[in-house]
Q: What sequence folds into this?
């Protein structure tokens, strides 16, 4: 995708949002009509006007067609994202420690790291650190092994 | 405490569990859900209880879990949803507990809970800036009739808001209501003279009142309060406006009666102890011990009152 | 006073302060762990401690955490606290040039000066200043937020598109609108999700927009090793830049003053100090490309807030920010209700607590200066190890804030959306500034309108307000003028 097209699409989206936002303030009730609504309207008008100006610049100014490149290495980029989402999804049931013990080595290998000793030590180090700081020091309730019914 | 339970978890996961035997309660730590941030008054109320419970009752361990947000709604829902096995109980605070039901936001009703009992309270008050001409509730009503008064309340649907609405109805006036984010902003508004009055809670203003930085003009309780005995109630001054915040214990409905009974008795016994009372006084927590049945009746009454306000002016 | 100093200089007290401060630096340095959270969680823990020791521990955490946020901001472009975002703007480019050690030195020195100055003010003038600060009402709070938002123009001018920076700031402010409308209690744009009732927390956004994006970029980059020859040059120990003290002094004063005022001061203070320093700098063109002056002002500014925020907290019971609010809980738990009593009846606890914060500032200064050359080598850790570790902390930090997995998804969402915006030239610093200051601006505006009975004149009436408009003008007009001039040519 060309960068300028994405840029235009984002700006167009913002303009649509600005209009929707402005219209939504009609639904405010009571004192909010005289207070919050004014604030939100101001935001909507400002972002709408600025987006229109920027879109104008964008269309009428000659621009070299550059591709929008989010990353140089799509495989690693997407891989990290997928691992992150899986980590989050596993958090509720498995807690922090088990998913993290898998996540850190997997991502390290994914990014091309090949020294098992360093990976292992780092993983264990992080887990111990988190255990000490979060659980022992701050007594944060990280979801743990609840699915086993034991904690 | 946590180390032990983590170890227990590991032991269990290895299939070597023999420690847990049926019929032995508690076999693990009991989670207390606190529906607000760590270090707040609800948290401190919970710790007052757990400190003595762990000391005086062998085998009982408690873990406090904070679920702040949405005026306690997230935490209340977590308690209502929790497995009724006696290993999760929680704190509630009013009037937010019932206000969420009345405003149809809550996914629970009072029936979702077994009410264990009330612990603490905080009377509603009306405070004005120190150099205000308003000396009492009659002045307040008169001033509000003469011209629009800016009155700070801690958010829409809060106890302060309900009290202010109830005063408006009783005195036949209308305030220029200023909803703030938290009592700190109210305090700053009164101390700085940016508002004409504020509906608040006693613990938030008692020191400022005594230091002369602000003036409390009325208590919104049935009777006078021992912490400020010279202060007349609103009822004495001719306006029947009553509001107090309460903080008590609830459990998800449906816990085995024997286990629930054990927990209820424990709460009653601890609240009756002198050590508990001394700790509460030190921590600026005003006690109001109430049995589960009494507190449930109070909650039901409060819900009906709140409903009446909501029906007139929904938020 | 001498007896109070004696209490602080007992072995036990010094050890407590040192532990608190070092823990604070670590907490501030980790994305997702905030001083507010740490103090809040440790308040009950201090319940069983000697009150004075407990307070010293928490005070150390507060001082340490405010400084700690700057370390990852400089080294990894991942600010540990929102107040360190301005530091990252200058610090990370310095790191990339191999001047990380110098950036760290400037940051710790400025933090020390700012922190010490503000505690001095707290010790000497607290009751007087707190009364003055009461004149600062919602209308003035609104103007203060505007002053902070003026920083957007400063981030943008000269190197990137001003319009896009403004749009980014507005996007942040609009995201902040989601949640409960404080005025009516009704829900705005929450799409029926209970998680959104309180709005979008800025911490998952901060972690997503900075830490996570940085990791995603590192993961996808071809070669990411920083040139080691540059790092080796660091060992030659670059001296402190000349004329930096002016910027530190400016930040210290600004930060302390803003800290005393209500509202989340540290972020505003850092950005306003940064902005001021850019205006007075002789090498303005170097801002955004690694100018130590910006770090000096921003760090002195946010640490200045520490002492400042305790002024109204201790004297009036009006906490200046959320950390101060959590600290107030620690006072109350020991029966010390803020007010005049703290300075007479409980003077033997309050004064040692205040004095202990001088020690805390000294502790992080020593730690920071000693470890700066070693910390700078963090930038040399291979990305393949750095990325999974920082990502794991990003996930954990987002979760731990509210014990909600929803916030983790939010963080990932911000990272993805933010990356697209960043590639299109929108400033993420402006976005986060809008997100943090939006609610303060809205609160000040709506409350001001109510107090003014619907008339916007309230924003111009008080003499404080008039002075603030002048400052806003000074901050806005020169960069706008130079922007328009550059457009025309």
A:
């Amino acid at each position: 995708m060309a960068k300028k097209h994405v840029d235009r699409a984002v700006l167009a989206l913002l303009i649509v949002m600005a209009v929707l936002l402005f219209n939504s303030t009609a639904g405010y009730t009571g004192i909010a009509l005289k207070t919050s609504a004014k604030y939100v309207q101001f935001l909507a008008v400002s972002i709408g006007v600025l987006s229109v100006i920027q879109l104008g610049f964008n269309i009428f100014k000659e621009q070299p067609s550059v591709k929008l490149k989010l990353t140089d290495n799509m495989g690693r980029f997407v891989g990290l994202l997928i691992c992150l989402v899986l980590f989050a999804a596993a958090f509720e049931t498995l807690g922090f420690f088990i998913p993290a013990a898998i996540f850190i080595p997997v991502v390290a290998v994914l990014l091309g790291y090949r020294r098992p000793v360093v990976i292992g030590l780092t993983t264990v180090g992080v887990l111990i650190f988190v255990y000490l700081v979060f659980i022992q020091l701050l007594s944060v309730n990280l979801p743990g092994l609840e699915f086993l019914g034991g904690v | 405490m946590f180390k032990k339970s983590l170890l227990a978890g590991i032991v269990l996961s290895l299939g070597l569990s023999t420690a847990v035997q049926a019929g032995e309660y508690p076999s693990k730590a009991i989670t207390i859900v606190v529906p607000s941030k760590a270090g707040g008054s609800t948290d401190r109320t919970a710790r007052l209880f757990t400190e003595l419970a762990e000391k005086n009752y062998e085998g009982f361990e408690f873990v406090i879990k904070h679920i702040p947000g949405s005026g306690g709604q997230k935490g209340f829902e977590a308690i209502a949803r929790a497995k009724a096995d006696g290993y999760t109980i929680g704190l509630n605070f009013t009037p937010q507990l019932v206000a969420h039901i009345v405003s149809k936001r809550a996914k629970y009703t009072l029936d979702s809970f077994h009410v264990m009992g009330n612990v603490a309270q905080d009377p509603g008050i009306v405070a004005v800036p120190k150099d205000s001409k308003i000396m009492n509730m009659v002045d307040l009503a008169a001033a509000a009739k003469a011209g629009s008064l800016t009155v700070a309340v801690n958010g829409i649907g809060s106890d302060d808001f309900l009290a202010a609405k109830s005063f408006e109805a009783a005195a036949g006036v209308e305030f220029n209501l200023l909803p703030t984010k938290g009592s700190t902003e109210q305090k700053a508004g009164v101390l700085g003279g940016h508002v004409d009055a504020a509906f608040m809670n006693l613990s938030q203003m008692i020191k400022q009142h005594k230091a002369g930085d602000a003036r409390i003009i009325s208590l919104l309780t049935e009777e006078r309060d021992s912490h400020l005995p010279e202060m007349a109630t609103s009822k004495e001054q001719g306006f029947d406006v009553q509001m107090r915040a309460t903080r008590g214990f609830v459990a998800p409905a449906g816990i085995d009666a024997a286990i629930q009974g054990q927990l209820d008795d424990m709460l009653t016994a601890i609240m009756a102890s002198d050590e508990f009372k001394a700790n509460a006084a030190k921590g600026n927590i005003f006690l109001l011990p109430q049995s589960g049945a009494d507190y449930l009746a109070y909650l039901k009454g409060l819900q009906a009152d709140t409903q009446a306000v909501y029906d007139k002016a929904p938020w | 006073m001498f007896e109070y100093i004696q209490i602080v200089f007992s072995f036990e007290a010094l050890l407590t302060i040192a532990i608190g401060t070092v823990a604070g630096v670590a907490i501030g340095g980790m994305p997702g762990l905030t001083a507010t959270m740490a103090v809040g969680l440790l308040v009950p823990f201090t319940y069983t401690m000697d009150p004075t020791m407990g307070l010293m521990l928490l005070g150390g955490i507060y001082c340490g955490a405010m400084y700690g946020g700057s370390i990852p901001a400089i080294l990894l472009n991942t600010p540990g606290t929102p107040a360190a975002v301005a530091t990252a703007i200058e610090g990370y480019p310095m790191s990339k040039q191999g001047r990380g050690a110098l950036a760290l030195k400037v940051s710790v020195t400025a933090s020390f000066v700012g922190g010490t100055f503000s505690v001095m003010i707290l010790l000497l003038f607290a009751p007087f200043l707190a009364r003055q600060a009461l004149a600062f009402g919602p209308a003035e709070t609104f103007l203060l937020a505007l002053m902070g938002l003026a920083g957007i123009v400063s981030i943008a001018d000269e190197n990137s598109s001003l319009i896009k920076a403004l749009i980014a700031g507005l996007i942040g402010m609009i995201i902040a609108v989601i949640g409960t409308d404080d005025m009516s209690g009704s829900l705005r744009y929450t799409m029926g999700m209970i998680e959104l009732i309180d709005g979008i927390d800025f911490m998952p956004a901060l972690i997503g927009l900075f830490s996570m994006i940085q990791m995603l970029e590192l993961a996808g980059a071809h070669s990411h090793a920083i040139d080691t020859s540059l790092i080796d040059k660091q060992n030659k120990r670059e001296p402190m830049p000349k004329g930096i003290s002016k910027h530190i002094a400016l930040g210290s004063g600004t930060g302390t003053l803003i800290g005393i005022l209500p509202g989340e001061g540290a972020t505003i203070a850092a950005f306003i100090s940064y902005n001021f320093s850019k205006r007075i700098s002789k090498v303005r063109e170097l801002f955004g490309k690694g100018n130590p002056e910006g770090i000096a002002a921003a760090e002195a500014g946010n640490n200045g807030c520490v002492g400042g925020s305790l002024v109204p907290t201790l004297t009036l019971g009006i906490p200046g920010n959320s950390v101060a609010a959590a600290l107030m809980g620690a006072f109350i738990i020991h029966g010390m209700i803020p007010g005049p009593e703290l300075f007479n009846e409980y003077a033997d606890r309050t004064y040692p607590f205040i004095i202990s914060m001088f020690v805390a500032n000294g502790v992080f200064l020593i730690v920071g200066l000693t470890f700066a050359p070693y910390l700078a080598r963090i930038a040399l850790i291979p990305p393949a190890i750095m990325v999974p570790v920082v990502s794991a902390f990003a996930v954990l930090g987002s979760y731990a804030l509210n014990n909600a997995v929803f916030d983790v998804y939010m963080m990932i969402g911000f990272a993805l959306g933010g990356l697209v915006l960043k590639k299109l030239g929108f400033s993420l610093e402006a976005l986060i500034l809008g997100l943090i200051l939006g609610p303060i601006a809205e609160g000040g505006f709506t409350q001001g309108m109510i107090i003014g009975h619907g008339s916007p004149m309230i924003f111009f009436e008080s003499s404080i307000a008039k002075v603030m408009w002048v400052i806003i003008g000074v901050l806005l007009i020169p960069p706008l003028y130079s922007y328009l001039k550059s457009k025309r040519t």
Notes: Chain B has eleven helices and ten strands.
